[in-house]
Input
Amino acid sequence: MRTRRRLRPRQFIAAVVALTVLVIAGICALPHDRYVRFKSLRDNAVIKAGWIYERIHFDPTPIDVVFVGSSHTVFGVDSARVESQYLATTGRDLHIVNLAMPHLGRDLQYVLAREVLQTRSVKLLVIEVQEDESRSLHPAFASLAESGDIITAPLLINTNFFDNLAHLPMRQLRLFIHSIAPGLFGESIDFDPATYPGAHWDDTYQEHPAADATTVAPPRLESHSAEQLEQERQHLDRMIASKLMLPDALKGLETRANLNYLHRMLDVAGQARVPVRFLYMPDYAAHVLPRFQSVYQAYGPLWYPQDVYRHLAWWLDVGHLNNYGAEALSDWLAKALSNEPASLAALPAVGGQENCKYKQACGQRLP
Output
């Protein structure tokens, strides 16, 4: 008679753990349509992600200059105005794209910069910098990054790491199901030119609403007194001071993760042979240069539009320009770009492959 072999408790637990790990790994490796992933965000702060994917992969309009950053760049740079002012100044065409997303976090900026640099023939990358590098990372990184990006994210100090990792299997499973049966969820994996907003996404005059929004954001025309802006600054300083701080000997760890992603972004730009500029966008009435100025300038010049930032009436709040300030900054940027080598607007493609993922979308210029 054959005797059944019984697993010892430790062996049973080890087998269960191994099987669980294999199942989770399998779920994390589930394929899905990347367009579905970028369209999955519906909140007004991140709904732009869907357009970003469409602009990179479906719109054949060239992408010459790319801006990445936080809400400072979202609300401060009007890409269409930069284009038109550059054309008026130089008589040359230059196609500008603002890929900035609200909230601090170099991790998402790296994901978006890599997406465009490895796909399109970019000629210049402009990276927003502020007084200091952020301690926090971007909350949308877990939704938009590749699985490998989430697994290999820096651990020190990354308070989002374990939460992002824990949510990865469920994200992959959801995206897999939505990709194979989009109709069940009222979605489509096909690009529709009729609903495409066009080659520019502009929030400088009025913020785009969320997909299910019932109200429209007011125009960004308001301004405040110096006293009001200073009160906002003091409130912001108190909020920062209330956060847990590391001792001076470990201070460098606070910004380590964001600097890590900054260098990853710069490495991708270097591999694509795309030059970099750094746009300094501080808060209202800032009197200091960026803390990591020497780091930035090792890779490219620092642009500092001081004349724009000095105008009190051009600030909506302590951290963001209003529409008038955005117009002035966009004009300044057009002039800065016109001072770049004249060949900038006529450089041959050296970075990406100038591919559109779906060839049917590349046959004609989109509206």
In short: The chain has one domain: 32-214+221-349.
